Fold:
Amino acid sequence: MSREDVFQKVMGIIKPFVKNEEVFQQADESTNILQDLKVNSARLVDIILNFEDEFDVEVEDEDADSVNTVGDAVSLIMEKLSV
Amino acid sequence: MSNENTQSVRLNRHEVLALLPQQEPFRFVDEITEVDESHIAAHYRFKPEAYFYNGHFPGNPITPGVILLESLAQVGVVSLGIYLFALAEGLAGVEGKIALFVDADVEFSGVVCPGDRVFISAEKVFFRRNKLRTKAVMTTENGNMVCSGTISGFRVDK
Structure:
């Protein structure tokens, strides 16, 4: 799966929890999930669980803590998929 | 760091209720009847003199949906959360911390009148990274469905 494919899937998973649609429309890998997209921090757990289901990977809590931007999520998933 | 406080503790149903932070006039759990890693069951009788019946509605008191939802959350999120956090992290996981209600998707299908007793049960959906989601159901004493759905709580420092 290409990085672009993963990016598109990640954006699809985050979309239902986004509160700032305008920023979401122009989001790239540097977009911060909590600060820019205004996702409720309690929803990060939902997003991580959806990553696990969509990509069939396991994300440890410590790994999840390192996810701040959309790009962080893409990198983490790319890394898990390559193992 | 105290090691004793972080050792896993399996609380019994009475200890869980004693640790529930909500108190009168905003406690909507009388007794927890079952609790384990995957589920919890409890009941509550709505007091006819509860303050909200005067306004909801004058002359026609019925229990507000938000109060029913609060009762579901006190059992399905807060009480089960206390049990699971103590099991995972000992009393350090419970003391000085509180599980706040963060999301819900609930349907209401029955009415609860003053004096009615309701039964609440909740099954764990997931418990990850300070967040607990359960599938919760409330029924009346004669088995009629009052409300059901998923509710979640997130643990934060008090």
